[in-house]
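User: Can you write out an input/output pair for a complex, sequences first and structure second?

Assistant: Here is one pair. Inputs:
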Amino acid sequence: MIRFVVRRAASALGVLVAVSILTFLIFAAIPNGNPALRLAGRTASPQDIAAVTKAYGFNKPIYVQYAKTMQQVFTGQIQSYTQHVTVMSQIKRGLPATVSLAIGATVLWLVVAIILGLAAALRAGSATDTSITVLGFAGISAPSFVVGAILLYLFAFKTHLFPNGGYVGITSGVGTWFHHMVLPWISLAVLYIGIYSQVLRSTVVETLSEDFVRTARAKGLSRRRILTGHVLRTSLIPLVSLWGLDFAGVVGGGAILVETVFNLHGVGQYVQQSVSALDVPPILVTVLFGAIFVVLLSALVDVIYAALDPRIRLAA
Amino acid sequence: MALLDIDHLRVSFRTEGGTVQAVDDVSFSLEPGEILGIVGESGSGKSVTAMTIMGLTRSPNASFAGRITLTGPDGATTDLLAASNHQLESIRGARVAMIFQDPMTALNPVHRVGDQIAEQIRAHEPVGKRAATARAVDLLRRVGIPRPDERARSFPHEFSGGMRQRVMIAMTLSCSPQVLIADEPTTALDVTIQAQILAEIEDLRAETGVGVLLITHDLGVIAEVADRVAVMYAGRVVEQGDLRTMFTDPLHPYTWGLLGSVPRIDKDRPGRLPTIPGAPPSLQNTPKGCHFAPRCPHRFERCGEVPPLEAADATAPGHLDRCWLALDTKRKVRIVNGTIGLPAASPAGADTAGVR
């Protein structure tokens, strides 16, 4: 177990370093990327720009700039080029909305996908199965911002059943918080429900034909007991690895579209604003932030794997 | 009344390619404490018969006819074909238990073996988890697994194939069933382990009086433990009798072919091991009449009609076969090169002389 943790931590560090270098290089290489132009303001003279370039060290070699930036990242001092506030404070501000979105949506998509996937698998070939498959593909094909926009139009603009976007902290009342989150949860979950239900359907169909399921039936177990004790547990294994990456992506600020459509002011929306302003420090930090979650969640996935399937050991 | 009575069982499955008649009019019965061997090659319907007894072939595409009667210790009978799914659940594992061919895949890889046995006990008896686990350990000890209390906490992948099959046997014993169905229990095992597992099954039969349905394609296994034998071919029982008779006085050409293709260490090898020419028919499109006729070197016009399963020799009423040839002819033509077998090619006209 200790070796597992050490190895995991070492590889995580490698991943994070690689991610930071790549992100930094991308924004150094893109055209019109010179941050001094934007920092100096719209009416800046060439002298102003030169002064800014010197002050921020943009004339130094790229590796010096990288080292300096990373130093600021690790001390938490790194500031946005456009807003002159620390990136950390902005992420901290956006995190409650993002975490609310991620947890609620993941609960929703897991529960619905497991129900639909099981229902389709148990009635494989029937009309139920076909309709669930069609719905699943519709969910996979529908872009989340379109789903979000339609939901907003129908339930906020037309019928006023839900608020028209915005995030309200859970501290202002669970009811209000929940009311604001329902539509974002649904828009984000639709895609994952489509994917997860289809994956679960095929693994359950496969598991149902396994010899050990026949043994379970021969033991005289009830249908429910066979499903919960023997079929579902083995069928959930592929979902676990999908879930690790997807959940990490959303918590790490990957739900850019949904957060923006619903104006949640979460980490994802911060990413969107930073990218459109070519504001490198927040982009760099949020990418690292997302990568940390991916690394953490994939370690968690390995632990869940080992718990679900004893043949998988946590050995290094 | 026999313990288990299969009466004119027919099982067919609707598939995209047409209807598959997997079991076509099969009748046999099993007495308490008896080992009935069912021999046949793949696709002969032996496994489908076994699974149908357990109710494991039920599906929207399957249709059944006939009767499968299980007689309880109190004399009450149950028709397993007509039983509700709920009734079957209470019979499976408790009164009729089954061992499968591949112990590698028949156990759930993610549960401890002790739990898998305890789960079956608890499905049928109102006992607590601890008591059920204790019984599981006892059962593991009984089937010869060393350090059973420790091994009960192991997972299936931590056992060898033979040990896993012992776990399966322990599991089937857990509720003291009346009938044990063993579907190719030794096929996936080494020869030495095979012998141990067969000995285990024989011991159990002697100890508990369980009736055993032993399904195999291996005549050696049959010769070792069975009391009676039924030979199946393309969904039908073609011959049935007690063990000795089946080996010394086989009356169906398919049985001769099977016996002739067994390697013998007590005779000189004539060259290549004889085989039965041709292949079993597709069960979607079985030949009219005798199913074996297309491969039978002794066939004649009458084989276009289905022969009944009946005793050819009035002095041996328990020895049944499905063949139109006359008894004398059979006893004459089954000898090939001084031993029982099928001739490689049809000796045209030679056996059409005397028919039943």
